[in-house]
Design a protein that fits this description.
Strand order of the largest sheet: 6-29-28-27
Order of helices and strands: HEEEEEEEEEEEEEEEEEEEEEEEEEEEEE
Largest sheet: 4 strands, antiparallel
Structural class: mainly beta
Number of strands: 29
Strand content: over 45%
Helix content: under 10%
Number of domains: 2
CATH architecture of the largest domain: 6 Propeller
Shape: globular
């Protein structure tokens, strides 16, 4: 969207009677906005003004300037209730991915973690396994991810647990943990493996005890788990209410083996500057170098979400905090002067070449930007992606995957199902459906 069109949109958003606008650029270079009170959309989605046919650059208030499901990404599945969310792997002849769900057992709505499989490259999905089912309504699962161990039938799953109403805990407290489960038959049956970290207790809503959003990486028999960590920075007053990305590792296949107690800090801001890093992806960019992509917050109030990256030059043994950089930030809102958000990223390397990063943003929606701490169930979000260009330090301009005002898009996840062919899964969240898209490089 050009800055002129963005300004037209901002003025229309301010007026309660404005239902849309027309932008024109004359041959003499003058740019003109025209505002309407009778603009709507017909059944085909084409804009109409008082019954007349649409004209160029005619925009309906409250609708993103461009978009729809799969802008340049053909939809191969959905939106339907039944597909993986965020994480996909190839195991045997299947594509496998997890989804957090719920089911009624003896009159109780219990949290579950399901696995879904596809035998036709993502065109259809069937529920094939149950990673975990909560014993009661006090336990809630979330953030499931899977990893297929190379040259085996073993699939590992990590996820977050949140307990409420714990016996012996102070009234109103909850706790967070990260758990590992294992399947030895390509995701059909599952067993508990180990508690990776936790439980950490605290007061609900106070940002000092959350752990979650794990990311799994397998390296020469070692399993690395990268995850959001509030308890560690909250040990110091100077970094109270901060969140870092930390990592724990152990032998991948040692069942029921304890994890180290002290994690390695792999992503945070310099010094004691505000850090709310989360939702990490780790990408091998060759030459024993890794790129980590995270959701972060801007250091400029009111601290909108941005997408950040940093690097390891020694295969993950250490992480260069000085290499940290913002790789995408939302546009500046013309009305409030504040930036929109960019959040919830997912990164992969495609065809041994560029890194692709999918993420969410509210920058195509009306002013004002959503608060970065807003509950995801009500946050507005388009799905966009960027790519590295001539090297792994520069990125392309953004391209749109989904912009649908009827859905709260969440948790985009990318997987290279074939050389240079990428699947992207998105959870519509509010209406409980998933969509799978595909694009070739």
């Amino acid at each position: 969207m050009s800055s002129a069109v963005e300004l037209c949109k901002a003025y229309c958003d301010q007026q309660s009677t404005c239902t849309g606008f027309l932008f024109q650029k004359h041959t003499n270079g003058h740019e003109v906005c025209g505002f309407y009170t009778g603009l709507h959309s017909d059944s085909t989605g084409k804009a109409l003004v008082d019954g007349n046919t649409s004209v160029s650059q005619l925009c309906v208030k409250g609708q993103p300037i461009s978009g729809g499901h799969g802008q340049g990404w053909p939809v191969v599945y959905g939106p339907k209730n039944g597909a993986p969310v965020k994480s996909l792997v190839q195991s045997g002849t299947y594509l496998i991915g997890p989804r957090a769900a719920a089911e009624v057992v003896n009159g109780q709505l219990l949290s579950t973690l399901e696995t879904w499989v596809s035998i036709d490259q993502g065109r259809s999905w069937t529920k094939n396994g149950l990673i975990a089912r909560a014993p009661n309504q006090n336990l809630e699962y979330g953030d499931p991810v899977v990893l297929a161990v190379p040259n085996s039938d073993i699939v590992l799953a990590a996820f977050r647990e949140r307990w409420t109403g714990l016996p012996g805990s102070p009234d109103g407290q909850d706790s967070f943990s990260i758990v590992l489960c294992r399947s030895d038959d390509n995701g059909f049956t599952w067993a508990f493996d180990s508690m990776i970290t936790g439980p950490f207790h605290g007061t609900p809503g106070v940002p000092d005890h959350f752990v979650g959003a794990p990311f799994l990486r397998y390296d020469s028999g070692i399993l690395e788990v990268y995850y959001d960590n509030e308890p560690l920075p909250n040990q110091r007053w100077e970094t109270r209410h901060h969140q870092w990305i930390t990592m724990l590792k152990r032998d991948a296949l040692s069942k029921n083996t304890a994890w180290p107690q002290t994690p390695t800090v792999v992503s945070k801001t310099a010094g004691d500057a505000l850090s709310r890093d989360g939702m990490a992806s780790v990408v091998d960019i060759g030459n024993n170098q890794l790129m980590m992509v995270t959701e972060s917050v801007s250091l400029i109030p009111p601290h909108p979400n941005v997408v950040s990256a940093l690097f390891s030059w020694d295969g993950g043994a250490t992480w260069d905090m000085g290499s940290r950089k913002t790789i995408y930030e939302g546009k500046v809102d013309a009305i409030t002067g504040k930036r929109f958000n960019a959040f919830c990223p997912s990164a992969i390397r495609v065809g041994g070449g560029p890194v692709w990063v999918a993420f969410l943003t509210d920058e195509d929606f009306p002013s004002p930007p959503d608060p970065s701490h807003e509950n995801v169930i009500v946050r507005r979000s388009s799905v966009k992606y960027i790519k590295t260009t001539t090297n792994f330090q520069t990125f392309s301009s953004n391209a749109l995957l989904i912009s649908d005002q009827s859905a709260q898009n969440y948790n985009p996840g990318m997987f290279e199902r074939d050389f240079n062919t990428v699947l992207c899964t998105v959870d519509t969240l509010k209406d409980g459906k998933q969509v799978v898209m595909e694009k070739s490089r």
